[in-house]
Write a structure and sequence with these properties.
single chain
C-alpha cells in the first residue's frame, strides 16, 4: 500500500512538473505554442455555424412568463461577416430555436440580426472576443388540436455575446461562447 502511494505521489510530481513544449523567440524568451504570433484575418469573409443550449427568461406578455410558455431548447446559429481589420468584424447573424413547449404542441423561434465583433488578441491562437448586435425576434406556438398558430414578434434591442476563438488553423477557429439578449415583444397574430 505504501509503495503504491509513493508511486502515485511521484507520478503526480512528474506530471505536474512537465510543461508544454516551448520555443525560444529572438530575445531568448521561451513561449508556448499559444503565444506564437499568427497572421490575423483582414478583409476576409467569415462564416459562422454553431449550435447550443437556449432558454427564454422574462415575460412573453403581461402576466405570462416565458417559463410557462417554453422551457429550455436547442439553438442553431448561422452568420456571415466581413473582417474589416484584425480587431473588427461586422455581419449578418441569425439563430433558430426549438424549445420545450409548455402550453402548446410546439414552440420555436427565429432571430435574424446584425452584429459587430471586437477581437481582443487577433494575432494569437486564443483570441477572446465580444459581440454586440440587434435584430428582430419571431416566436411561434403551434396548437395541433385546433391547427392554430400564435406568432409573437418584436425587437431584439441588444444581444451581447462573449467568446474565444481557438484557432486550429489560420482559417479555422473553434469558439465556445455565451450570450444574452433583451427583447421587446410588440405584437401577436394568429393564423385564424
Amino acid at each position: 500500500m505504501r509503495a503504491k502511494l509513493t508511486t502515485l505521489v511521484a507520478s503526480a510530481i512528474v506530471i505536474a512538473s512537465v510543461s508544454p513544449a516551448r520555443a525560444e523567440d529572438s530575445t531568448g524568451e521561451k513561449k508556448t505554442i499559444w503565444d506564437q504570433p499568427l497572421v490575423a484575418p483582414i478583409n476576409a469573409l467569415e462564416l459562422v455555424v454553431g449550435t447550443g443550449y437556449t432558454q427564454g427568461f422574462g415575460a412573453l406578455e403581461p402576466g405570462v412568463g416565458m417559463g410557462n410558455v417554453a422551457g429550455p431548447g436547442l439553438g442553431a446559429d448561422v452568420g456571415v461577416g466581413y473582417r474589416i481589420d484584425p480587431h473588427w468584424a461586422v455581419g449578418l447573424v441569425g439563430q433558430y430555436q426549438e424549445f420545450d413547449a409548455r402550453r402548446a404542441a410546439s414552440a420555436r423561434g427565429l432571430t435574424p440580426g446584425i452584429a459587430a465583433s471586437y477581437h481582443i488578441r487577433p494575432y494569437t491562437r486564443l483570441d477572446p472576443w465580444v459581440q454586440l448586435g440587434v435584430g428582430y425576434r419571431f416566436f411561434w406556438e403551434n396548437q395541433e388540436a385546433t391547427g392554430t398558430n400564435l406568432l409573437t414578434h418584436g425587437l431584439e434591442l441588444a444581444k451581447l455575446t462573449i467568446g474565444a476563438d481557438f484557432r486550429v488553423d489560420k482559417n479555422v477557429a473553434l469558439a465556445p461562447f455565451i450570450g444574452a439578449d433583451v427583447g421587446l415583444p410588440l405584437a401577436q397574430a394568429t393564423n385564424n
